[in-house]
Design brief:
The protein contains 17 helices and 36 strands. The protein has 662 residues and is an alpha+beta fold.
Amino acid sequence: MNADADRNEAADFAERLAAASSQEQFLRVMSRDDALATFRAAVPHTRLPSETVPLEDALGRVLARDVASPMDVPPFDRSLVDGFALRAADTEGAGPASPRRLTLNREILACGVAPTTVVRPGTATPISTGGMIPRGADAVVMVEHSEFDARSLAVDVLTAVRPAQFVGYAGADMARGETVLRKGTRITAREIGMLAACGLAAVDVTRRPRVAVLSTGDELVAPGEPLPEGAIYDSNGAIIAAAVTENGGEPVRLGIVRDDAAVLEAALRSALQDSDLVVLSGGTSKGAGDVSHRVLSRLGEPGILFHGVALKPGKPLCVAVAQGRPIIVLPGFPTSAMFTFHDFVVPFVRALAGLPPREDETIEARVSQRVPSELGRTEFVMTSLALGPEGTMALPLPKGSGSVTAFSQADGFFAVPAARAGIEAGEGVAVVRLGAGVRAPDLTIVGSHCIGLDRVVGLLAERGYRARTIWVGSAGGLAALRRGECDVAAMHLFDPETGRYNAPFLAEGMSLVPGWRRLQGVVFRRGDVRFEGRDAADAVASALADPDAVMVNRNAGSGTRLLVDRLLNGARPAGFWNQPRSHNAVAAAVAQGRADWGVAIASVADAYGLGFRPLTEEAYDLAYREDAQGMPALAAFLSLLGEPGTAAALRDLGFSPAAEAA
């Protein structure tokens, strides 16, 4: 090599070294909090627009809006066992030594068969699990508790049954119009089952963020290729792409880009055109071979937001914005790359995908009530989580194995070991979370269901607060609030002594916030002469005078049941012991001809196309503990109830906001 060549090589080396040394890196190392704030200020962390996908493609996606069931699930009252549909009164006093013989009706109610024969006193109809309960029947006896007499076509019932025994009511799982899945829910197999059970073939979901993933460095080799001396396999690309998928994004693998400024710039410009976010690994350290920072400054304003964060590991993190999209350059070392990825990239990807922040997958909690279990069998108990006076509480869900919604309403489950006869109230359990990254609810509401409250909870979710709703009736909600198992009790209880709703039932330390007014009345099939043209009192009197008229009642402890009891004034007409837990189930029974009348709210009557005779306007209010008023989620909920937008939403549903009704 001659002297001129030596001088040229030295000059070239000096020029390259000077260029590398003049990098404007690490001029100011930011704190982690400042860096996160700068990133959030420059790039909105908001969900992407929605798209509609077929149900078979919805797994793992995020709901773009609330889903209300378009139908009752189940759509009719059904048997929960194989046996005989009958009238419970016909089995009174039955036992092995004193069976009650019932004549069999000449039809068999298998699944999918609509009943044609009324179950009259002294008769029974064979029915399969899932079969539709016929008119006249109010219970089912298990086949194991009966003896069939083929010669006389009769059945001997060997045990007494109670009304509603082994009957699953229409809408007990999901009621028509009930919000069954919330906006922001990540769809798993359990939500797929719910959507299919509702008859939905497609669903609106948040578009998945497209994340371009590049690895930079001359030393990198793709896995599976021969490894030259001094080279390493690119593990970061695979790790980052998997983490993007795990957190709701769609990775776009762009492979390895060499340490060449022109090549990297072309790759980045292409990636920016077809993605929501670009993630590079490598190229952030202050080495002569790293070129990422120089390229970023040429891609557009505002360019580099920061380069260097006070993290260990992760100090070389670089974040830029160009063409309205963020570019995040992670450190090359895998440990540093993943620490910074989960700290900075994961929250952004999940926000774009409509997902909540990540959480640990298990949580310690105390059981709110004793959970009995059968010795010798491990039992898994579905539970929701709530904050009680002594910390996190696990609230076992009441819905059984036939319920599609049990999984949806659960935050997780805990196990009762086979050697235990149960878990005692207050005992600690480890709750296994359902759905990685789903956080516990900010607010737990227990009590009487109303689609108005569904709407308010949806508005609360738009403000970033997630509410868990559990429907157990007004009295059940008040009891849960008294025990500290919830934050809010939804109720409509009338006190006949004072003539007031709800307030007389509050315990010391509770406060009541007015909600809205709902019109309760008698519902019936339009055209029924026993009700048409009469006011509610006359209509009920007409029905009570007709021995063929069948009512449908409501469950004890509900506010509507108190109203029905006053209306009946001690009477026990046919159908009295048919006591479903919702307005929808009442309307379904009447609409389908299994009952002739019942009491429900006007909005439900309209939804089912029923006639309606007004009885009273009731107060649907919300109770809470005074010492919890400062809790952010509760404060937001209480504030929301008084806002004009909430009042407008309630009016759209047919309700009268309390402030306007006063």
